[in-house]
Amino acid sequence: MRVLFIAPYGGLGGSENVLVNVLERLDRRRFDPHVLLLEQGPLRDRIAELGIPTLVQHMPGKAGVLQIPAAAHRIPKGFDLIHANGGKAAVYALPLARRMKIPLIWMKHDHSYDGRLTQFLARRCDHVVCVSHAMAGQFEDMGERVSVVYPGVITRDLKPVEETGPIVLSIGRLDPFKGFDQVLEAIAELRADDVEVDVRIAGPQDRIHTETQAQLRRLADDLGIGAEKVGWVDDLDEVFEQARVVVLASRPKGDDGAPGEGAPLTIMEGMGAARPVVGTGLPGIAEVIQDCGSLVDPPTATNIARALRPYLEDARLAAETGARGRLRVERLMTLDRTVADLAAVYERVAQKPAVP
Question: Looking at domain 2-152+334-350, what is its CATH homologous superfamily?
């Protein structure tokens, strides 16, 4: 089966990492993947390393949407199925799927544009794959045309949590909605209460909020934590191994309070490394964590500090909680399961007539 994967961005964020992980593990005896990127960037190099044919049509930003009809017309026929990795990719894929008369699957990773636009787009796709049940709830009337597939992560066999120091790890694009400022403030509050704690905020500069990295580094310096604790790291295994607890302090996006996360990989990765996790009470985060950590709502520095403190002061509690997280990931959220579930969706949808 020839599958065209469409990705809207060229950077390496959560949804892009999911795409790379799926492409890397997809059974090439059953599927022949090709990739179309709608932006230049390092994602192309990652996919090229896998030996997968890749085309780039550089159409960044909202202005790129206006170029979609003409650009889509230039894609040659010969595919059996389209996997659109995100909302902009699904908008691009709609006219393409209609022209080719093939099914379109939209994998929805976040809550961007939830509401009428999302409902309109979803009903014109043959199938929607959501990364959490919380996200899928808005499509209840679509019945079997909606599936839930967790993004999936690797499990890391690291040193036991009991052997770690009181180190807090937070990973993600340096986006202001990720709440890294509140994590830094929480560390400062803990230190003011004489709690021994250190922190590492690891992630790439955000493609839109390019100023956030510098802002976070200034804040870390002002709080006496150190600017060097903020920024990209090459070896995630190393930072996970040193961590006692993993935190994601994402807050809602926009004035309407829309959730900013679907099913965050960093939380799953922390659980897969047998580390306890602390997250905010957004629906997708709460669904992933369950009893494998703690939730904070609202995500203030004081609430985050209060949630982190038990794991920093009690390594045994951290180990017990982390062990539950590891089991939960092994049962529901491994990459192998993600790829198997998506492959089953591809084959099932391909057997049905495409939405006219």
Answer: Glycogen Phosphorylase B; (3.40.50.2000)
